[in-house]
Amino acid sequence: MPATKFSRRTLLTAGSALAVLPFLRALPVQAREPRETVDIKDYPADDGIASFKQAFADGQTVVVPPGWVCENINAAITIPAGKTLRVQGTVRGNGRGRFILQD
């Protein structure tokens, strides 16, 4: 039998295996608790805007530690309501970048 054709038996076996999958229990999955404070160093440095966006999604407070420089911030970064940005290092851009606080 060619490799591209399936027999009825193969299709029934595959269908039965797929039908059983919802009843099989994998390891219990737990929701990840949001962290209170996240460090911007834990995110990719090449795309600062996406890094800040992901950091604000992951934690309550985003920290730019001392000695760390976030360069080329030349677009708007929105700080969601109830979130905090703690800058202890440096944030640089060409003058077009800004942080927007939401209520």
TrEMBL record:
Q: Which InterPro entries match?
A: TAT_signal (IPR006311)
Keyword entries, A-Z: Signal
Q: What is the residue range of the signal peptide feature?
A: 1-31
Q: What is this protein called?
A: Colanic acid biosynthesis protein
What organism is the protein native to?
Answer: Salmonella enterica (Salmonella choleraesuis)
Per the UniProt record, the lineage of the source organism begins with: Bacteria, Pseudomonadati, Pseudomonadota, Gammaproteobacteria, Enterobacterales
